[in-house]
Amino acid sequence: MSDLTQATRYGVLQRDIEHEIEIKRSRFICYLSRVETETQAREFVDLIRAEHRLARHHCTAFVLGADRMVRRSNDDGEPSGTAGLPMLEALTLFTRPAGSTADLSDTIAVVVRYFGGVLLGAGGLVRAYSDSVSQALTQARFYTRQRMRLLTLPAPHAAAGRWENEIRAAGIEVLGTAYETDHAAIRLAVQDRPETVTGAQRRIAALTQGAAQATDAGVSWVDLQ
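The chain above was modelled as a monomer; its predicted structure follows.
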């Protein structure tokens, strides 16, 4: 992503991940979760702490927002710079499968360590915490979260299902349909660019034979497969 301040898309987790590795009898259990605010991130940390009260360390890192400017990490008692920062780097440098840039965001990693009695040294800790997060990320699947222009298309009840299928086949994202008393409202999403919106309106007009016109419903972030 060449200009994070102008980001219009980024990667997010589809579901939570738990992954464990063992190094010289120490257990490192990595939890990944999707969060959208610092409050949600800290609530997730509290949840993991409560689940692993006997663990010696609960180290954390998270990155938030389309621009990925909110970045926090915590060593939680490990030597400074040996846990939280390597975890944060593992998050921010991660490239999704088939991706061309590192763009993962809205993600928190918590690594719980149960000490096995063998000191790993600074270098060993850096590798352990970094590998714990990196290996967990390889188990994950992702959505592309993209800023989209929303459209609403009114449709007769009898035609709504057919229109949905034809619009989807034309490459327009269908978010769902709300059935009102006298009509159905098909919710659509297209890239937030004037030429894309205009093109979508033309395709919709052709598919419906001019029977209906989609109206602008604003801009929102949408999860895409």
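The chain is about 30% helix and 35% strand.
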